[in-house]
Amino acid sequence: MKLTLRVWRQKNAGADGAMSTYEVDDISPDMSFLEMLDVLNEQLILSGEDPVAFDHDCREGICGACSLVINGDAHGPERTTTCQLHMRSFKDGDTIDVEPWRAAAFPVVKDLVVDRSAFDRIIQAGGYITAPTGSAPEAHATPVPKPDADFAFEHAECIGCGACVAACPNGAAMLFTSAKINHLNVLPQGAPERESRVLDMVAQMDEEGFGGCTLAGECATACPKGIPLMSITSMNKEWLRATRKASKG
């Protein structure tokens, strides 16, 4: 395959960025998108140019590090992570636009790399339990109803990639935050901080400068792990419950 790549290049957060055009040839349809970028970078290095900076780690769809907007879609045309997107999703001769996540709370570090430490601070605000657990407990030591366990596992699948923010027209982080809150709040281990968790994490999310949610639904569509939109509704109910309880003293 021969492709034309239009890639966002930006030296640092304070510099102006622009799209640069590159041609890549002899791309196998079986390559992942990141492997294709590796080919581009080898080409740039050999020609004495600065390689394109992009985030990646496990390349197995687990860590959530890869973060690219491809032809206007977070992670590209398939519902998967960028590292699991293969070049067979494109056609020979295609022009592909590659950009970083676009959100005020995700400032560009360089080229396609953005700073997602805002997510870390949301987790630090309440995404944990304080119950002393010691060594790993027996599997059935704390009974959890099957619907609650399924609900918790569904939300625990969130890998924190940020596609929900990049896809949202408002740059909201509600799907990420709701997933992290819901998977702990439904379990007995998370019960002691149930109210403080949702209040603290939502407050931190707002402090980070993410946009407001209008339930456009683009976040759930872009999520590679299929976190459902109803996760936000569940979090809102938790927040209202906690707010009312706090107001009563």
H-E order: EEHEEEEEHHHHHHH
Q: Provide the structure class.
A: alpha+beta
Strand content range: 5-15%
Number of helices: 8
Q: Rounded to an integer, what's the Rg over CA atoms?
A: 20 Å
Shape: elongated
Query: Largest beta sheet, briefly?
Result: 5 strands, mixed
Unreliable residue runs: none
Structure summary, number of beta strands: 7
Q: Termini separation (Å)?
A: 65 Å
Mean residue pLDDT: 95
The main sheet orders its strands as 2-1-5-3-4
Helix coverage percent: 25-40%
Describe this structure in words.
The chain is of the alpha+beta class. The chain is built from eight helices and seven strands. The strands form two sheets. Strands 2-1-5-3-4 form a five-stranded mixed beta sheet. It has a two-stranded antiparallel sheet with strand order 6-7. A hairpin with an 8-residue loop joins strand 1 and strand 2. It starts with a strand and ends with a helix.
What are the SSEs and their pairings?
Elements: E1 3-9, E2 18-24, H1 33-46, E3 69-70, E4 73-74, E5 95-99, E6 108-110, E7 113-114, H2 117-126, H3 146-156, H4 163-167, H5 174-185, H6 194-207, H7 218-222, H8 230-247
Parallel strand pairs: 1-5
Antiparallel strand pairs: 1-2, 3-4, 3-5, 6-7
Helix pairs in contact: 2-5, 2-6, 3-5, 5-6, 5-8, 6-8
